[in-house]
Amino acid sequence: MDAGKKEEIMLALSQVIDPDFRVDVVNLGFINEIDLNDQGLCLVNMTLTVIGCPIMGTLEEMVADALKIIDGVEEVKIEYRWEPAWSVERMSPYAKVMLGLS
């Protein structure tokens, strides 16, 4: 995947607002890796705040909807990584300010 397409995907993901935190998944530090193969499969590796997060399904739908409008993305697959666990240190300075942590 070229840098321009990666930037386009990350921009789309930055529009996905976590309903609990009201901050996007990129600034919250949920996105670990993204990849788009030649067949149009976009793989998103994420870490959420807790295993079994009650809004996991909602976030998956929101991520898929945001990415499916990108040219070349035919399918979205989301995988989760739980090690290392998510922590506040993963958040951007913007997210910390928005949540009153900075």
From TrEMBL:
Domain of life: Bacteria
The protein's name: Metal-sulfur cluster biosynthetic enzyme (PaaD)
InterPro entries per record: Fe-S_Maturation_MIP18 (IPR052339), FSCA_dom_sf (IPR034904), MIP18-like (IPR002744)
UniProt domain MIP18 family-like: residue ranges: 6-77
Gene3D superfamilies: Fe-S cluster assembly (FSCA)
SUPFAM superfamilies: Fe-S cluster assembly (FSCA) domain-like
Family matches, as Pfam families: FeS_assembly_P
PANTHER family from the UniProt entry: FE-S PROTEIN MATURATION AUXILIARY FACTOR YITW (PTHR42831)
